[in-house]
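hey can u check if this looks right to u? its 112 residues, i copy pasted from the old doc so theres a chance i mangled smth
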Amino acid sequence: MATIYEKLKMMREKAGLRQGQIADYLGVTQTFISKVETGERNLTVDQLESVVNLYGYSLAAFADTEEEAHPIQFAFRAQDVSQEDLRIIADIGKIAINSRFMAKVLEGSNVG
């Protein structure tokens, strides 16, 4: 079972983002993100929620090894992604996560 910090690193790498981009997005240093990914430091709950939304994971999928994770796949067409771009991607991630949750709820209630 992967540790929290191993999952964070794996998620960032799958998203194709650099530690510096995540640091800028969260308003912390790249060194802080590096230490988070090695288990030396921890993110706050708000920071963790911001990051998993950006990566397209729900907090439940992040914490629960049994729940299937569906990260959002996106491709960057520009050399640099702005902080505004990352905020928009995170907002889209949150919408997708909520949409998947609502689909599960509707499936479970047999509403159709």
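The mean pLDDT is 80.
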